[in-house]
Amino acid sequence: MEAGILLLPGLLRGLRVTLEVFVLGAMLALGLSFAVGLLRLSRFPIVRTLAAAYVEFFRGTSLLIQLFWLYYALPFFGVELSALAAGVLGLGLNYGAYGSEVVRSAIRSVPKGQWEAAIALNLSPLVRFRRVILPQAWPLMLPPFGNLLIELLKGTSLVSMITLGDMTFQAMSLRTTYARYEVPLFLLLLVLYFLIATATSAIVRRLERRARVGRSA
Amino acid sequence: MAGAPAIVDANRALQDRARAREDAAVRRPIVRFRGVKKAFGAMTVLEGIDLDLYPGEKVVVIGPSGSGKTTLARMLMTLETPSGGEIEVDGEPLFTMVRRGRRVPADERHLARVRGKIGMVFQHFNLFPHMTVLRNVTEALIHVRRIPPEEARRRTMAMLERVGMAEHADKYPAQLSGGQKQRVAIARALVMEPKVMLFDEPTSALDPELVGEVLAVIKEIAAKGDMAMLLITHEMQFAREIADRIVFIDGGKIVEQGPPEEVLLRPKSERLKAFLARFRNGMGLR
Amino acid sequence: MGDEWRWDVAWAAARKIAAVVPVTIAATVLGFVVAAAAGLAWTIARRSRSALVRGAVEAAMEFVRRTPLLVQLLFLYVAFPRLSVFAIGVIGLGLHYGAYLSEVYRAGIEAVDRGQWEAARALNFSRQKTWTRIILPQAIPPIVPMMGNYLIVLFKETPLLFAINVTEMMAVAKQFGSETFRYLEAFTVVGVFFFLMSYPASLVVRWLEARFGRAG
Ligand SMILES: Nc1ncnc2c1ncn2[C@@H]1O[C@H](COP(=O)(O)OP(=O)(O)OP(=O)(O)O)[C@@H](O)[C@H]1O
Ligand SMILES: [Mg+2]
């Protein structure tokens, strides 16, 4: 109890950074998921190949390496990113690669007849996608997106290792001050992540319920 | 008043010429397949189809399974690209266009413009499951024809009335029977006022007891006259009632065509005879 | 452009990193063995007859899956000061991915037709025999590709062990970088190492998926 009162304010100082990195990273990842997922369905083989290369590259290496690379190695090319920028960019690029697979497979699982009916009604390619395909693919994307979002949240803890002051970073520095309480400290940190993840997952569930209105068949 | 007869003459000449133009327009095919070929990989499905469809004409296409009937309709709907030959719609090539004095493959703009003259009803309805019946039908009116929502709604309700689905306007496709779904799909295509309607086996995915209601709707539409129809079906009795002309496709070619009585009752080719023999029983054909 | 890429430095980094490849491999393999066993334990526990046990197990698994591996490692590190950091790394990876593998096992088991249980019952197989002779032989082959996937994921997570002072590839790269101030080569080379090992493995898994179908 005493430990909690002592430690919580310090951890909560990192909460803002964690949430900031989480939200910005998620937005970037979502944007990339759609952009790259659609490029992977392009008519042009070269575009598909480049998009696939991006996905394979980011899925083939580790998030931590990507973050270190963006933060420590990129300056060698004259690009100095702040820790926040490197963190958001790394998370966005990494989870965007996974998300693009979600987008791609969800779009591909919309029955061919739906595309054809949209063409037969002469809907423009944009309207076809926005009003016919996406509304049917979106509910399929939500559950895997929800899982990815949790993974992304967990991934934010890695930004502590590129000097960004998130919750994990705060815990590491509290640990040196309150060595006696280091076990409850990390337990408390785990609980905080669990609570954020659970809230996130509840929000996604609600979106899933909303997306299901009047479907199937 | 001396000039009066001259004016009358000139008027008459103008009227004659206008009538001649109209006649020519009536005689000009709305759709024209010219030497159309289609192959999927190494397999040739259609090898040179010549077929004209005139405004208002109802043409029924029959033929064995796999003979390429669906492929024919899908090419006209731009869902497949011919491997050879050309399809003209309203006197204009569908898959090519002129740019800077040269014939080039059609772009999306060209396809969209020509496609606007054609509507299609699919075997499996292909209704949009996430939209109500009403929205399924208004969608293209609003987003393609750019008709204001209120007017689109009015036209939709009138069309749903016509196919007997007005009271189901707020339901989702999942809540409808197959026959009801197909009637909505017909309304959805019809409300766009196409010059040509394609029906690809509109009743073959339906339970037998639901076939009648859909055929009745199609018959009612056909009676209305001005729209050309290309209808693929295995319902021979229905074909006979509705068709101005029946086209029999087999082996990638048009084997026979003519008025329903000719084709159905006095087939010339052995292949058509064999094909029809399978429908003799219970089809009311003698 | 500042300092451009230097091959001699990259070579030096590669040699140092290559020296600890066995550490990373060992952590991966042992971590996966623990994960496979822990996953089985989770799976058995969550099928317990007691609703209380089932609920507690589900909650614990959810907790493990919804919290960062990095923080779990740090927690184990401070909670068990007697254990070697390598052992903590292996246990951390194993518990974390055990919770994921349990989901995979469950999917495999649920995919076995109900009729198989009934047939086993009708033939009077014991409960244990039903599992070992009837259910598992059918449940496991379809989930092999999924397990392969998690093996690769686990491999890519081993750089986190650097945070608890395990001398694996990432730690060596960071060390090299801070000694020579050549982070570019150090982190590029370690990335290449990971890619060269994980990408071929993922091709194998994809081939397995295509060959034996997707499950789980
Ligand atoms: N996209 C495609 N790829 C490969 N082959 C195709 C494709 N579409 C159609 N085919 C083949 O082309 C042939 C003609 O098909 P089509 O669907 O046009 O026949 P159909 O006359 O409509 O037959 P049915 O009466 O069974 O509907 C068939 O052998 C079919 O397998
Ligand atoms: Mg067909």
Automatic annotation (TrEMBL), chain A:
Annotated membrane topology: Multi-pass membrane protein
Keywords, sorted A to Z: Amino-acid transport, Cell membrane, Membrane, Transmembrane, Transmembrane helix, Transport
Transmembrane regions listed in the UniProt entry: 17-39, 51-71, 77-98, 183-204
GO annotations of cellular component type: ATP-binding cassette (ABC) transporter complex
InterPro entries according to UniProt: AA_ABC_transptr_permease_3TM, ArtM/GltK/GlnP/TcyL/YhdX-like, Ectoine_EhuC, MetI-like, MetI-like_sf
Name of one Pfam family that matches: BPD_transp_1
Organism superkingdom: Bacteria
Any one GO MF annotation of this record: transmembrane transporter activity
UniProt keyword Transmembrane, yes or no: yes
GO biological processes: amino acid transport
Domain (ABC transmembrane type-1) ranges: 15-204
UniProt subcellular location: Cell membrane
Recorded family membership: Belongs to the binding-protein-dependent transport system permease family.
Protein name, entry field: Ectoine/hydroxyectoine ABC transporter permease subunit EhuC
Automatic annotation (TrEMBL), chain C:
Pfam families documented for this protein: BPD_transp_1
Cited CDD domains: TM_PBP2
Residues in ABC transmembrane type-1 domain copies: 17-205
Subcellular localization(s) per the UniProt record: Cell membrane
Keywords: Amino-acid transport, Cell membrane, Membrane, Transmembrane, Transmembrane helix, Transport
Single annotated GO MF: transmembrane transporter activity
Transmembrane residue ranges: 20-45, 74-97, 186-208
Primary subcellular site in the record, as a coarse category: membrane
One GO process term, biological-process aspect: amino acid transport
Similarity section: Belongs to the binding-protein-dependent transport system permease family.
Full protein name: Ectoine/hydroxyectoine ABC transporter permease subunit EhuD
